[in-house]
Amino acid sequence: MSILKIETYPAPVLKQKAATIENIDDRLRQLAEDMLETMYKAPGVGLAAPQVGESLRLIVADPGEIEKPEPIVLINPQIIAGEGKTAMKEGCLSVPGFTAEVERYQSIVIRAWTPDEKEIELEVHDFPAIVFQHELDHLDGILFIDRISRLKRNIYERKLKKGTLEQD
Ligand code: NI
């Protein structure tokens, strides 16, 4: 296991559409393990492969209770249904020092593959639904700052240039 380097905006890999995974092999399982370790260490509740420089459709997440780790690894995940609306302040390990409210579906159904090569469907609501929508966006090169108003985006870009983003 190893801690991976997290790419931050404006790294080009974060803007790319990630490639579909053709083979679920040991290399991929190792990458998922390393991503989980990196996510827990950060700490974060989700991480997508492009954030560690791998342009692949792979995400890891643990949006549950902190005392009870429940790591989830999803390969080639797709949102196949979404309903309701919710919004909360989001942050991102690749956009350090900035948070903003983003509108998302309140409930989603995801279809994906697991590391042991099973195809699954997952229905999630509220906070976990927000986490998965945020992580799936990364696979299409979309950051949460791409989903906020132009005004808020300008505030972010200005702070980034001036180096006045809050440090964690
Ligand atoms: Ni993120």
Tag the structure with descriptive keywords.
two-stranded antiparallel sheet; 168 residues; alpha+beta; Peptide Deformylase; binds nickel (II) ion
Task: Explain what the structure shows.
By secondary structure, this protein is of the alpha+beta class. The protein has a single domain (12-162), classed as Peptide Deformylase (Alpha-Beta Complex). The protein is 26% helix and 26% strand. The chain has three helices and seven strands. A five-stranded antiparallel sheet has the order 1-2-3-6-7. It is globular. It starts with 25 loop residues before the first helix and ends in a 6-residue tail after the last helix.
* Separate helix tally: 3
Distance between the termini: 25 Å
- Strand coverage percent: 25-35%
Helix and strand sequence: HEEEEEEEHH
Name the shape in a single word: globular
CATH topology: Peptide Deformylase
Q: Indicate the mean pLDDT.
A: 96
Structural class: alpha+beta
> What radius of gyration results from the CA coordinates?
15 Å
- CATH homologous group name: Peptide deformylase
Bound molecules: nickel (II) ion
Q: How many domains make up the coordinates?
A: 1
**Could you describe the largest sheet, including whether it forms a barrel?**
5 strands, antiparallel
- Strands ordered across the widest β-sheet: 1-2-3-6-7
What is the total tally of β strands?
7
Per CATH, the architecture is: Alpha-Beta Complex
